[in-house]
Amino acid sequence: MVLVFLLGSGQSVAAKGLFGGSDFINTPTNRVLSSGTYTIGAYVGEEKWGRIQVDFGLVTDFEVGAAIDMSRHDNEVSARFKYRLIPETKNSFGLALGIQDIGKEIFSPYVVIGHVISPYDLRWNFGLGGGQLGGIFFGLSKVINPKEFPQVTLIGEYDAYDLNLGAKILLNKNFHLDVAVIDMDQFVVGITITP
Predict the structure, then answer these.
(1) How close are the terminal C-alpha atoms of the chain, in Å?
(2) Confidence tier at 10 by pLDDT (50, 70, 90)
(3) Which residue in 30, 47, 155, 166 is deepest, having the highest Cβ count within 10 Å?
């Protein structure tokens, strides 16, 4: 976290999801954290910005979170919530709605559906949002779990504006290394702790 505070000048990235506890990279999914569980993440971008965020499964099907987006000239605090209206089952998609960027000049409401294509273990999400998620967004993820290497989740998404590609690498039971290319031109690296 010290690295995040030592960043130079630059502009912060639009908040969106950025590797939130149950999100892809910038886009939300229909999943929520289980009641009583939480994630803590710290991320840095090559344009000298940083983010620290906490997400918490408050009760069944309801997740809340807070984030601090930082650069030398600007620090923004925001909150978010997500409610899963329809849980995902083996045979049908799940549906969630939420609001991100609460406390910023423009907040971002959304609705999102998603499901896992079973034989391929391929997760898809499709949503419609406002604010920073202004328009249609969608994404795919695939968990790769070879015996020789750590588990890796590959992610590709369109966040209503640009394409993002990334990976979540499980380093141990509670620790992920997150890497991504945002808008196909900005590299981001971070860690997520899931106690």
Answers:
(1) 17
(2) very low
(3) 30
Interacting residues of 142 by C-beta distance below 8 A, sequence separation 6+: 120, 121, 122, 123, 153, 154
Report the distance separating Cα 136 and Cα 129, nearest Å: 7
Q: How many residues does the chain have?
A: 195
| pLDDT value at 109 more than 70 | yes
**What is the model's pLDDT at position 1?**
29
Look at strands 152-158 and 175-182 and give their pairing. Answer: unpaired
CB atoms near residue 81 (< 10 Å): 16
C-beta separation of 87 from 64 below 8 A:
no
pLDDT tens by residue, 23-58: 999 999 999 999 999 999 999 998 788 999 999 999
